[in-house]
Write a structure and sequence with these properties.
This protein has 252 residues and is an alpha/beta fold. 45% of the residues lie in helices and 15% in strands. It has one domain: Rossmann fold (3-Layer(aba) Sandwich). α4 crosses α5. The model has no long low-confidence stretch (mean pLDDT 96).
């Protein structure tokens, strides 16, 4: 079995890879894009945290996925799950969480952690609330595209479209993964792993110092939601995505 973790940005991408590694799979550290791959394990944590573009190598996504060995795990926001026939040996773990959470998390990442997104820095936009509204207008549509892709995968699996066997897909709400012990247990069972290994695997994944947990920041994320930000969020029609997700059986 090869595993590809397809996520909405900030829905536990690296956490899930760490968890699967603790269950005995091989976390390759390969973050898959359309025409490139981030080779995160070839670089120190600081590079992955602040300037992840430095880890980029040009390589078509199909080459990356087809090059996975048995037991390997790769991940990313690329909708590889839309191509199960092209990648017959791959199991797809599709992770999501409510867009109000993922959008704030990506904003915090861009503004306070990464050093390669200059337009959102305090030196360019002094006020955090104004910066968040700017981020929503500029980057929010890309997250909505990722939702479109994930919901399309879910719909095809629900319809039992040829090639889209439910046996090859798991859909995981990242918040539920952290809060409900039955969620990681069920995933382990789907992957043929003894669920008794889950508590230790979850504890180790929580303790791991990953690129997404390296800020050490304490922020009031609710304070970012100004009237301007709420208007920008409404324009994204993110809640329509949530309603569609619920109609397809996803939970929040």
């Amino acid at each position: 079995m090869r595993i590809y973790i397809q996520t909405i940005p900030k829905s536990g991408t690296y956490f899930m890879a760490a968890f699967l590694s603790e269950l005995g799979f091989n976390d390759t550290g390969l973050h898959v894009g359309l025409d490139h791959v981030l080779r995160t394990k070839d670089f120190e944590l600081r590079t992955n945290v602040e300037t992840p573009g430095r880890t980029r190598a040009m390589q078509p996504y199909a080459q990356t996925i087809l090059g996975l060995a048995a037991g390997d795990v790769a991940f990313g926001h690329m909708p590889v799950g839309l191509h199960p026939i092209k990648f017959p040996r791959v199991f797809f773990v599709c992770c999501y969480r409510h867009p109000r959470k993922t959008l704030v998390s990506e904003f915090v990442d861009f503004r306070f952690r990464r050093q390669d997104v200059p337009w959102i820095k305090p030196s360019e936009i002094a006020d955090d609330r104004a910066a968040f509204a700017t981020y929503l207008r500029k980057c929010g549509p890309e997250q909505m595209d990722k939702w479109r892709d994930l919901l399309r995968v879910r719909r095809l699996v629900t319809l039992r479209w040829p090639g889209f066997s439910a046996r090859r897909y798991a859909f995981v709400n990242f918040d539920a993964m952290l809060a409900d012990p039955e969620v990681p247990r069920a995933l382990a069972e789907r992957l043929g792993v003894d669920p008794q290994r889950v508590p230790d695997a979850m504890a180790a994944a929580r303790a791991a110092e990953t690129k997404t947990k390296a800020t050490g920041l304490t922020l009031d994320r609710n304070a970012f939601w100004s009237n301007e930000a709420e208007a920008a969020y409404a324009a994204l029609r993110a809640e329509a995505r949530v309603r569609r997700a619920k109609s397809l059986g996803l939970t929040f």
